[in-house]
Design brief:
The complex is a heterotrimer of chains A (293), B (265) and C (358).
Chain A lengths: L2 E2 L3 H27 L1 E3 L5 E3 L3 H7 L2 H31 L6 H10 L6 H12 L5 H9 L10 H29 L3 H9 L4 H29 L3 H7 L10 H11 L3 H27 L11
Helix pairs in contact in A: 1-12, 2-12, 3-7, 3-9, 5-10, 7-9, 9-12, 11-12
Chain B lengths: L5 H21 L3 H6 L11 H8 L1 H34 E2 L3 H10 L5 H14 L6 H25 L3 H9 L4 H12 L1 H17 L2 H5 L8 H11 L4 H21 L1 H7 L6
Helix pairs in contact in B: 1-13, 3-4, 3-13, 4-7, 4-10, 4-12, 5-7, 7-10, 8-9, 12-13
Chain C lengths: L3 E9 L10 E10 L4 E5 L6 H9 L6 E6 L2 E2 L5 H4 L2 E3 L11 H11 L4 H15 L14 H13 L7 E4 L7 H18 L3 E5 L2 H7 L2 E6 L2 E6 L1 H6 L4 H6 L6 E8 L2 E4 L2 E3 L11 E7 L4 E4 L3 E10 L4 E7 L2 E7 L9 E6 L5 E4 L2 E2 L6
Parallel strand pairs in C: 3-8, 3-9, 6-7, 7-8
Antiparallel strand pairs in C: 1-2, 1-4, 4-5, 9-10, 11-12, 11-14, 12-13, 14-20, 15-19, 16-17, 16-19, 17-18, 20-21
The chains are: A mainly alpha (293), B mainly alpha (265), C alpha+beta (358).
Chain lengths: 293, 265, 358
Amino acid sequence: MKTINQKAWLFVIPVLLLVAFNALIPIMTVVNYSVQETFGNNLFFWQGLDWFEQLLNSERFYSALGRQFLFTGTILAIEIPLGVIIALAMPRKGFWVPVCLVLMALPMLIPWNVVGAMWNIFTLPDIGLLGYFINNVLGIEYNMTQSPVAAWVTIIAMDVWHWTSLVVLLSYAGLVSIPDAFYQAAKIDGASNFAIFRYIQLPKMKRVLTIAILLRFMDSFNIYTEPFVLTGGGPGNSTTLLSIDLVKIALGQFDLGPAAAMSLIYFAITLLVSWLFYTLMTKDDEPKRGDRI
Amino acid sequence: MKKRSLIPIIYILFLMLPIYWLIAMSFKTTGEILSGFSLFPQNWTFENYKVIFTDPTWYRGYINSIIYVTLNTIITVTVALPAAYAFSRYRFLGDKQLFFWLLTNRMAPTAIFALPFFQLYSAVGLFDTHIAVALAHTLFNVPLAVWILEGFMSGVPKELDETAYVDGYSFPKFFGKIFLPTIASGVGVTAFFAFMFSWVELLLAKTLTAVAAKPIAATMTKTASSAGYELGLLAAAGALTIIPGAIVIYFVRNYIARGFALGRV
Amino acid sequence: MAKITLSKLQHSYYADPQEPKDYALKNINLDWDDGGAYALLGPSGCGKSTLLNIISGLLTPTHGQVLFDDKNVTQLTPAERNIAQVFQFPVIYDTMSVFDNLAFPLRNRGVKEKVLKARVHEIAKMLEITNLLKIRGSRLSPDNKQKVSMGRGLVREDVNIVMFDEPLTVIDPHLKWKLRSKLKELHQKVRATMIYVTHDQTEALTFADQVVVMQDGDIVQIGTPVELFERPAHTFVGHFIGSPGMNILPCEINNGAAFFNGKKIQLEGPIKPDIEGTAEIGIRPEFISLSKSGIEAKVRKVADVGRHKIVEAMLGDTRISVIVEGELPAQGSSVYLNFQPNQTRIYHDGWIASEQKR
């Protein structure tokens, strides 16, 4: 049991100050923008909730939101199962384990604009390895600056390349924490491989998978740099995800008000989805010690 | 060799292909790159790397990045440690709400926060300093750090604290001499995450700097537009950004499997 | 249920074992009778868990065979051998209810729901966990978790053997006793062959009809609890079983008689032929009494452990324990020890070297 101790607040104060400075002041600024109109020169006019109203009636917002959900949904649907499958196939011990883990973690440690640039030169139709291969060896026409489908496939492939390893590492960590006795007991109980996965491995991976899904959801919902460098949101608006659209509005057109209102709306969406998901996943978690029977 | 080990092998090959292409390009001249497709560099050149190591606008970018990333890692771990301890050991008024609020900061859209950040840090006179970027990156790193460390600390039985107090340790002495070594792998993993997310972030880093603290990633984008399309040079610069991450991950390689479980599983 | 035969079993965890010390099991030949209650007793690292895992099929032995009813099963998987095993730490399928946990081994073998339901309830009743059947596995306390693990081991009626690998390690002391007697009772009800692995002599002696004592990968003695206690085949067994363990005194063998400090000692019977020179006398503290005359010793320490009192005395350089009823001698005083002849044995190179009178 945790003890009730209000002095614990003292321990939290540094974090509180730091995050308040970084989060509260900017978010106040954003809220402030969202209810005003500006024509530059630091002149602001009260606008009320007009921006929100306008946004919620605008097609542009919904199509960006739709693209964002399509993107996040697709990468989650690919990365989570793929990561779990790879983690299951990994050896449990031996020389190759750290080698695999280090190599797998490598993409996550590359600056995001470099990731974008890298995939750009990787997929260039005439001089990129992948682009050349698809166009000239497979004979399929592939140019993401012209075809929205090619652009989508490429940003999804890039995200899978970039982040599947996070799911692999988290799932793998969950898997190695299962004692051998569980596998032995399952063998003796005559359990099939699927039953072992369903009743032993999956429950043990639940917590880390929750973390993986949450992190991937939050981060992919905010994704900006990589797709911006790779496709610039194009061709047309086909890969203009929420953040790219935001920056276009805020800096491109200097419409700070609508951009701020939009970012607040989607901050709220992220918050709501994360909270719902988190509550759902932890609902029937391990009980506290006292509740054991 | 078992059939199923093909899965990780194919996956790793897939991961390595774009990296290979980046490195291969960095050894080509821009002329060779643009003249057509070649799987290996035909005329090996170190010219691209030579430019980076001799031109201060390039290599200072690396130094700047490393300085603010290191600062950020230190700040993140230092402030997250006591907070995580409080969350793992005590119940206090508003603890759950506070914890969730911390996590929400990871969901904040960086793209739109860039401008307020710029104004904020300009107002306090920190614009274009390393510490500005380091502090700004705590926005998304501190919540994650508290989360990870809390997991590790909850895995340490409370009896450890109590025994230490009975043995006459003061709180700071207990924390430094007994508790920290116990969760060393947790601290390592936290530092790794802080390093990683600070190193790879560009948007805030670019917004908060101009000349003196400009990160390498920003140098790359500026060069791309000003000096024409110098693909070979950009590839070399990109290839070099992989190295610090590779070094850090080499150091934590033995913690990875256990540490990524974020403490309790 | 089946008779189980272990024939010339050797096992090494090294790929290329060279010396005897590379082997976790040196050379095991053993028969387990159908329906018996056995205990495998020995200190940590003696190879008992290795042996268990070879019988269950989790390990394949380096050499030798495992036979179930004279059929070679050495290469079969645990599922094919049709055995049950309960592990040291409770293995529970957290997301399943207790009922589903107990039903799991039956469902995997395609047992009909109706039959299965009856059997699960029967087992739950035996273990007194009927009230928990609907509860999720993750919510159980450690001892209930272990009860469910045991239940999963016992739920199949047709298993060849049920094995317990130190199953009471995680159980609180006051519940240990209860579960232990429960197990004994269960054995009488289900009449399955059971092997119980432990390093705790009380657990082994209360559970088993036959106890197999192991040391360093070898079997030292097989016998009933009484045999092990009264006539240990090896000084190791004498030490390991009993509290305090058997007293071992150095002695000289001369012409078929044993001498301690030049004094002839009465034995249970004749010494095996060809034994001369240095050997050891073994006698349990329970079979020594204090009297007016006999071998003189100095009292070093006395202790009252409740049920009886222990006197620790020095016979020259040799320490000797005596269990006494009634009056305790004073510390430092001289006492005279009498050995009960029919319980006094000779050991040579560790192994018993005297024979009982017929």
